[in-house]
Amino acid sequence: MSRGVYIVANDKVCENAIALLNSIRLHNAEIPVYLIPFNDDYQKVATQLQQSHGVKIYPDLAFLNQFTEKIGTIFDRDFLALPNKMRKLVAWFGPLDEFLYIDTDIIVFEDVANSLNYLDDCGFICCDYHHRSEGLKNVFAPDIRERGIFTEEQLGDVFNSGFWGSKKSAITQARMVELLQECAQHREYFDFSSGVTDQPILNYLILKQIPQRCNLVKTPEGSPGSWAGSKHFRDRNWILYDQEKPLKYLHWAGIAIRPGSPYWSLWEHYRYLNEAKPPEPNLWQKWVNRLTKRTR
């Protein structure tokens, strides 16, 4: 049985992808990691991650392109803000029998294989407090509750789509297409008001298809939160803690990672974990950089 990690990336998020892989490899040097290209501009990030971290390209790019085209036929052009974000769904049809999907705006603080072990007892895992802090926001519209599409217990399992895991056997291609077509026929079920794309659709798929789900924050041992917008986490030797509990990961969901962002120094540490950090530009260079951007 093969187990590993999928990420979605292109050259635009290369720096974030390097930081993520540095953190993954710090705790597990061997676990397979596959890159699902977000679009055709992925050669730089693919080469970098392959050389430095042993990351492989999703092996069936023809299928990936076919899947992307299928999404375009299922959903109206104005239905999804960024249709290519749906490419993460091909994780169910890749080479890994059990897998984690991790967004590139994440840093992990432990061996990611630890989370995969929970798939011994369920078909889907996540690890976040979206159900408590956000409720149905950025997932479902009120119609989904009013029409009784899901039970209250099911709605309590909504999750953020940046860190989750499942099994290849959990869904077939035919069933996924069927569920995606259901989604396309009911725009009123979903909350796209903040510009999200894949999260509402993925939640619908999971709640409809996989009855055995586990949110790791709800397990007896529990797990702390993960959002970089939370200001109370404390850094101990480049691992964040919520009181005495170490975080599994930190997610800059909805937050641009740049100087001044929450936990910026932590991100910088992992980005330059295996190389020298470039010197800060002087005031003259900063002025030139700003002027160059304005004239582009």
- Inertia-based shape: globular
Q: What does the largest sheet look like?
A: 7 strands, mixed
List unreliable stretches of 5+ residues: none
Distance between the termini: 50 Å
Any idea of the CATH class? Alpha Beta
- Series of H and E elements: EHEHEHEEHEHHHEHHEEEEEHH
The domain tally reads: 1
Chain-averaged pLDDT: 95
Figure out the total of helices: 11
Please count the beta strands (DSSP E, at least 2 residues each): 12
CATH 4th-level superfamily:
Spore Coat Polysaccharide Biosynthesis Protein SpsA, Chain A
What Rg do the Cα atoms give? Answer: 19 Å
Q: What fraction, in percent, of the residue positions are helical?
A: 25-40%
Q: Per CATH, what is the topology?
A: Spore Coat Polysaccharide Biosynthesis Protein SpsA, Chain A
- Strand order in space, largest sheet: 3-2-1-4-7-6-8
Annotated CATH architecture: Alpha-Beta Complex
Output the structural class. alpha/beta
Beta-strand residue percentage: 15-25%
Describe the model.
The structure is a single chain. This protein has 296 residues and is an alpha/beta fold. It is 34% helix and 15% strand. The strands form 3 sheets. The chain has a 7-stranded mixed sheet with strand order 3-2-1-4-7-6-8. Strand 2, helix 2 (43-53) and strand 3 (56-57) form a beta-alpha-beta unit. Helix 1 runs parallel beside helix 2 (43-53) and helix 1 (14-27) crosses helix 10. It is globular, with a radius of gyration of 19 Å. The model has no long low-confidence stretch (mean pLDDT 95).
